């Protein structure tokens, strides 16, 4: 299990330390200005970009995301959203590395079903092995299977990102015991990816001991995305503090807040 202290509680991914434990997506916003304002409100330092859907320079003359989220201010995390085979995912990662001047950090996701967007774990394992061998720092989207999470860590992934519920569903944390099992046995950061709908979901993920939360739809799809981004930032911070503070044990019956020993009479 990843250990931390109050005084040095940064999120370390591939040797780099980040203050923020909230990672945000850049799709589904009304325009690039809203993307920028929501990202700033979230306090995110790592922002994920769907290479197959977002222009970061591969389409000259069109609006470029990097104009509003410059790489000297943010860690750009290219992802392989929309890929359904290991080959497509590896090809997409190599394109992103070229566009980002050799940037090795990537988010791998290989989908297996268009309806649920659940990962194809067989293709994910295959792609992860190829990308790690090719020098990429792989953050990997996966199911909530603790055995699979351990295998991806053994392959060399720098972060494992299990879903909490299907992508974009907003159902919240549906699998807390699976997540606990993954967190308690991990030596790399565990970042909840997919399923968060509102601030309390993010807080629960952090209270479970997850190292961070990545979200897009929960912010971009809100009635006020910028305000929701701020709420998510506060929720992640509160959940992390609560985890580090150590909650009281659950009891079936009440207990007095003040000790009863030594009371007169």
Automatic annotation (TrEMBL):
Pathway: Cofactor biosynthesis; thiamine diphosphate biosynthesis. The active site is at residue 107. InterPro entries: Aldolase_TIM, Thiazole_synthase_ThiG, ThiG. It is found in: Cytoplasm. Keywords: Cytoplasm, Schiff base, Thiamine biosynthesis, Transferase. It catalyses: [ThiS sulfur-carrier protein]-C-terminal-Gly-aminoethanethioate + 2-iminoacetate + 1-deoxy-D-xylulose 5-phosphate = [ThiS sulfur-carrier protein]-C-terminal Gly-Gly + 2-[(2R,5Z)-2-carboxy-4-methylthiazol-5(2H)-ylidene]ethyl phosphate + 2 H2O + H(+). It comes from the Bacteria. 1-deoxy-D-xylulose 5-phosphate binds at residues 168, 194-195, 216-217. The keyword Thylakoid does not apply. SUPFAM superfamilies: ThiG-like. Pfam families: ThiG. Its EC number is 2.8.1.10. It is an enzyme of class 2 (transferase). The keyword Cytoplasm applies. Residues 13-259 form the Thiazole synthase ThiG domain. GO terms for molecular function: thiazole synthase activity. Homotetramer. Forms heterodimers with either ThiH or ThiS. Belongs to the ThiG family. Catalyzes the rearrangement of 1-deoxy-D-xylulose 5-phosphate (DXP) to produce the thiazole phosphate moiety of thiamine. Sulfur is provided by the thiocarboxylate moiety of the carrier protein ThiS. In vitro, sulfur can be provided by H(2)S. This is Thiazole synthase. The lineage of its organism: Bacteria, Pseudomonadati, Pseudomonadota, Gammaproteobacteria, Lysobacterales.
């Amino acid at each position: 299990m990843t250990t931390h202290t109050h005084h040095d509680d940064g999120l370390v991914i591939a040797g780099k330390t980040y203050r923020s434990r909230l990672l945000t997506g850049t799709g589904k916003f009304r325009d690039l200005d809203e993307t920028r304002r929501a990202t700033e409100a979230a306090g995110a330092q790592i922002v994920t970009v769907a290479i197959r859907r977002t222009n970061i320079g591969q389409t000259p003359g069109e609006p470029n995301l990097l104009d509003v989220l410059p790489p000297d201010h943010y860690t750009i995390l290219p992802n392989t959203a929309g890929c359904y085979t290991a080959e497509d995912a590896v090809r997409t990662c190599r394109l992103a590395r070229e566009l980002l001047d050799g940037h090795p950090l990537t988010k791998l996701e290989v989908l297996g079903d268009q309806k649920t967007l659940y990962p194809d774990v067989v293709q994910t394992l295959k792609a992860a092995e190829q990308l790690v061998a090719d020098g990429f720092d792989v953050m990997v989207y996966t199911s909530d299977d603790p055995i699979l999470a351990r295998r991806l860590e053994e392959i060399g992934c720098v972060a494992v990102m299990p879903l909490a519920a299907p992508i974009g569903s907003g159902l919240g944390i549906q699998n807390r015991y699976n997540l606990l099992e993954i967190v308690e046995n991990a030596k790399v950061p565990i970042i909840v990816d997919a399923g968060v709908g509102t601030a309390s979901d993010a807080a629960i993920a952090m209270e479970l001991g997850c190292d961070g939360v990545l979200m897009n739809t929960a912010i971009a799809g809100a009635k006020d995305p910028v305000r929701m981004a701020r709420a998510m930032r506060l929720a992640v911070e509160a959940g992390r503090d609560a985890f580090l503070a150590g909650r009281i044990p659950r009891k079936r019956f009440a207990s007095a807040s003040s000790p009863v020993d030594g009371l007169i009479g």
